[in-house]
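WP5 quarterly update. Target: MucR family transcriptional regulator. Source organism: Blastococcus deserti. Length: 227 aa.
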Amino acid sequence: MLHPVGDLPARVYWRRRLVVLAVLSAILGGGVWLGFALLGGGDGDDAAASSSSGPVPVPALARVVPSPSAVATPEPPRIPAATGPEATAPAPAPAPAPGGPCTDEMIGLEVRAPGSAAVGSKPTFELAVVNVSAVPCVRPLDKGLQEIVMFDGAGNRVWGSNDCFPESSSDLRTLAPGEVVALPLVWGGLTSEPTCTAPRAAPAPGSYVLRGRLDTKVSPDASITLE
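Structure tokens (predicted):
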């Protein structure tokens, strides 16, 4: 085959062999290309088929246990804020029981005194107690619980009714609504202090203030002028 023999020149036979080899090579190359094309086209068709065949089936575990994002957490109920007078108004205080103790809020207290008195005289003052509640109540009016104190214009203590001659008594009173009880206290006209050891003297003429007390209840100030 490498040395063909024939009537024609040898180059003719070599040309024919080259042509045959070229044709065979073309046929083999085309077959290989066609095979690759068929394989690639099959993969593309499978991908297209898988993408257009519908939703992917959900795994069995996902059908049993829902995802956290799909579970709705219920919100706590909202309680509307109270508005209006009911939201700020304090609860009313319980009404006092009839016949119970007279608290400081249930009584009024004032000092009654003459507008003026002579220096060295012995004026009588009164401690007036009144039941300002709507029900009867009970209050101790013992002498040891009563006191009137005098102050000068600068606020210095001048005299106290319990300084030198304190008295004691037991006086439990039932006060009707609006009832007033006047408790008299006589001033000796001299100065004093709680221990009653300092020298006593008549205060100088001028304006003074009287303040009363019944146990824990304190009265407003009353004025008196010594002449």
